[in-house]
Design brief:
The structure holds two protein chains of two kinds. Chain A is mainly alpha-helical. Helix content of chain A is about 65%, strand content about 5%. In chain A, the strands form three sheets. In chain A, strands 1-2 form a two-stranded antiparallel ribbon. Chain A has a two-stranded antiparallel sheet with strand order 3-4. Chain A has a two-stranded antiparallel ribbon with strand order 5-6. In chain A, helix 8 crosses helix 9. Chain B is about 75% helix and about 5% strand. The chains are: A mainly alpha, B mainly alpha. Chain A: InterPro entries: Cyt-d_ubiquinol_oxidase_su_1.
């Protein structure tokens, strides 16, 4: 029994670790792919080379981030079978096809358009290259669509039948499975999160280079674009998050109780706790600091609306409150900080100080990685909040795991941690090194030698013994001549 | 043998696995042979010969895994826990190798380390894949829709043999691929390396083929009783013919023939595997129909697969066409 529990806990830690690591890269890629499409579109529309330079600057970073997403994604596609075999057997008929669509989409995109996007700028016409960029952006969306549909179905399962052997089987309509009740909210909330994450990375990098040289036109442009995004999208995200929360209240009320730290029921208006230390054993929130009635106002739009608490839920069906409560607060806190930066940037614009307000730039640099923290925190909120179930209310996590001994899982977890930190540490270091270079006119794209092949993805081939000229260094008149070949 | 949806899916998964083996096989093989290449130009040429295609190749592995999960969830749920340490080792090997690819050029200060990571990752991945195959063939203990064996069932002399067989086979694919792609001294070297890889592959293939019928009742019957013997015996016969042709092609320093013949050997191995296992996906325990997802799942996936897979194949073929020819000479235009 004790061994079982250990193996289960280790398997959960392993999944949390590998999925969080993986999720960082797609969250960045989704936003960055769209940003690249916007940059290229603006370049084609205005003919202003600053956009082309920024496109090439961020393209190099995109190539590395995308490759790391693919590599860590391969692990995810096997993780269900290795560590969660019972879940795979039972839920496979429903979520397997959705995941297969995700793989097919990602594959299609990677095989088809990424190579053209990364290396084709001087090889194909502008229209075709822009199409490739748009397709890559679209592809990241479609991937997110399928994988979030899977996740949403696990949270709010619909459209299934229970077959022999306790398997979930698809019902009459796949649409009912794919578009399950929480899916639209989760999709919108997650995609906007990816956009904000990217905006703050771009803004942070722009601010960094503005601090060094506030006259750098490229840094100005990227900082300005990122701050528009922050100012316009952060409020939208707060609204979308609120909608998502109301949807969760409807379908997963216990998760909301954990998010709010409501161990007790509040028959006449529930407080919004700003701080507290949840204690699952004692079923109470220690050191609670709250605003009376506000939770009812937010969730029910009525200060005196009753809200049930975890005292109405058996202990065995409760999620771990501490993780959910704090992850939720971190996510919301970062959301409001993002809004603050966005509003600050509007004030700076109005005062014509956007490019020389050093305090704003320092704050933007600090907020550069904030999106990643918020995304992981949001992920923990929704996933830990789904506990103790894998398929909400229907299949328990404890009944989903593979029949593995704890030492096996412990060994593999250790190996994952070591390899991931080594490998992705190097990758992250490299991305940071790319970001530390100032964006400038005549920016080179992904470096490639004349001899080197066009890649179907991620990496750059090395120099051969007699490297030719790098086509990116051609004068622009010649470059134009090469376009459309 | 009714041609139902389940059979179609079995063939699609088999195709994805085979596509993975022949495509990622040669680039894993180059990783395995890497220490034997001279530092500098020869290694760079070898790397460049697979740079445009390697991660497209690797994606077939995700397709195979994802496809197995979707079409045969029970098989996925039994085989992966049964070969747990092997799968984890393979994944970590591939992670290492993929990143080594990425940073070998970008971080020349640590090139020796990245070269080591490239070789070690390739070797571990290939060995693990071969051992998974062996573990599957020798049978997996199943009880109540789950793996019921112990921790080390996958580690036997037989699985070590299949593991080494796959390593040698990939090395042969890698060497013969290089024959197509490189020139000058590297080309001479590729021919020299191909020979021992070929001999090792042949010996290990023979050993595995002789060992396998003694594992399970079904295999013996398939291979050595009438009437299936008439069909099955064609496989070793063709293998012998191909092996002879490959030997001649290497001696005559042909360009394309060695690689194509090596692919042929792998195809025959795959057919032999099918002869041994059909219609089981876990020998003697789970047939493809036992493991299959319901018809609704199969139909739903088939729609997307039927549209996307041919496009992917066409594009892959086109990419290989674009990057045809020698890697270090004319360059690509």
């Amino acid at each position: 029994m004790f061994d079982q529990l250990d193996a289960l806990l280790l398997a959960r830690i392993q999944f949390a670790f590998t999925v969080s690591f993986h999720f960082i890269f797609p969250a960045f890629s989704i936003g960055l792919a769209s940003y690249l499409a916007v940059l290229e579109g603006l370049w084609l529309k205005t003919g202003d080379d600053v956009y082309r330079d920024l496109f090439k600057y961020w393209l190099k970073i995109f190539a590395v981030a995308f490759a790391m997403g693919v590599v860590s994604g391969i692990v995810m596609s096997y993780q269900f079978g290795t560590n969660w075999s019972v879940f795979s057997d039972k839920a496979g008929p429903v979520i397997g096809p959705l995941m297969a669509y995700e793989v097919l989409t990602a594959f299609f995109l990677e095989a088809g358009f990424l190579g053209v996007m990364l290396f084709g700028m001087n090889r194909v016409g502008r229209g075709l290259h822009f199409t490739a960029t748009l397709m890559v952006a679209l592809g990241t969306f479609v991937s997110a669509f399928w994988i979030l549909s899977v996740n949403s179905w696990m949270q709010t399962p619909t459209g299934y039948e229970i077959g022999a052997n306790g398997q979930f089987l698809p019902g009459e309509s796949w649409a009912e499975i794919i578009f399950n009740p929480s899916f639209p909210y989760r999709l919108v909330h997650t995609v906007i999160a990816a956009y904000l994450t990217t905006a703050f990375v771009v803004g942070g990098v722009g601010a960094w280079h503005l601090l060094k040289d506030s006259a750098n036109r490229h840094a100005r442009k990227m900082f300005s674009m990122a701050m528009w995004m922050a100012a316009l999208v952060a409020p939208v995200q707060i609204f979308a998050g609120d909608m998502h929360g109301l949807n969760t209240l409807e379908h997963q009320p216990v998760k909301v109780m954990a998010m709010e730290g409501h161990y007790e029921s509040h028959p006449d208006g529930a407080p919004l706790y700003l701080f507290g230390i949840p204690d699952d054993k004692e079923q109470r929130l220690d050191y609670a600091v709250g605003i009376p009635k506000l939770s009812s106002v937010i969730l029910k739009h009525d200060p005196d609306a009753p809200l049930a608490g975890l005292d109405t839920v058996p202990d065995a069906d409760q999620p771990p409150v501490f993780a959910v409560f704090w992850a939720f607060r971190i996510m919301v806190g970062i959301g409001f900080l993002m809004l603050g930066i966005g509003l600050w940037s509007l004030v700076a614009r109005w005062r014509k100080r956007l490019y020389d307000w050093r305090l704003l730039h320092r704050a933007a640099i600090l907020m550069g990685p904030a999106g990643f923290v918020a995304v992981i925190a949001g992920w923990i909120t929704t996933e830990a909040g789904r506990q103790p179930f894998t398929v909400y209310g229907l299949l328990r996590t404890a009944e989903s795991a593979s029949p593995l001994a704890a030492p096996a899982v412990a060994m593999s977890l250790l190996a994952f941690v070591l390899v991931y930190f080594a490998v992705f540490g190097v990758g992250t270091w490299y991305i940071l090194r790319l970001m530390s270079g100032a964006p400038h006119a005549g920016e080179k794209g992904v470096k490639r030698t004349e001899k080197g092949p066009v890649r179907t993805a991620g990496i750059t081939p090395g120099p051969t013994q007699n490297p030719g000229k790098d086509p990116d260094t051609l004068p622009s008149s010649q470059q134009e001549a090469r376009d459309g070949v | 043998m009714a041609f139902d949806l389940t059979t179609i899916w079995a063939f699609i998964i088999a195709f994805a696995v085979f596509a993975y083996v022949i495509m990622d096989g040669f680039d894993l093989g180059i990783g395995i042979l890497f220490p034997f290449f001279e530092v500098g130009d020869e290694r760079d040429q070898a790397m460049n010969s697979i740079a445009p295609v390697w991660d497209g190749n690797e994606t077939w592995l995700v397709l195979g895994g994802g496809g197995l999960f979707a079409a045969f969830p029970l098989a996925y749920a039994i085989i992966l826990p049964a070969t747990y340490p092997l799968i984890i080792a393979m994944l970590l090997g591939l992670v290492f190798r993929g990143v080594a690819f990425e940073f070998r050029w970008r971080d020349p200060g640590h090139r020796a380390f990245w070269d080591f990571a490239f070789t070690a990752g390739s070797l571990v991945a290939a060995l693990a894949q071969g051992m998974v195959l062996g573990a599957l063939l020798q049978g997996i203990e199943v009880a109540d829709r789950a793996y019921a064996g112990s921790w080390f069932d996958w580690l036997t002399p037989y699985t070590l043999l299949t593991g080494l067989g796959v390593v040698a086979g990939y090395a042969l694919l890698g060497a013969t691929w290089l024959i197509i792609k490189v020139e000058g001294r590297a080309l001479d070297h590729a021919y020299r390396i191909a020979r021992p890889a070929f001999v090792a592959t042949l010996i290990l293939l023979g050993a595995v083929s002789l060992y396998t019928p003694f594992l399970e009742g079904q295999y013996w019957q398939r291979w050595f009783t009438m009437p299936s013997f008439l069909f099955a015996s064609q496989v070793p016969l063709l293998t012998a013919i191909l092996a002879y042709a490959l030997m001649r092609a290497l001696a005559k320093r042909r360009t394309y023939a060695p690689f194509l013949l090596a692919l042929g050997l792998f195809l025959l191995g795959m057919i032999g595997l099918g002869v041994s296992m059909w219609p089981y996906v876990v020998p003697d325990q789970v047939t493809i129909w036992d493991a299959a997802a319901p018809e609704r799942s199969q139909v739903f996936m088939l729609v997307g697969t039927a549209i996307i897979l041919p496009v992917i194949l066409a594009y892959t073929g086109w990419a290989y066409w674009v990057f045809r020819g020698k890697v270090g000479s004319e360059g690509y235009h």
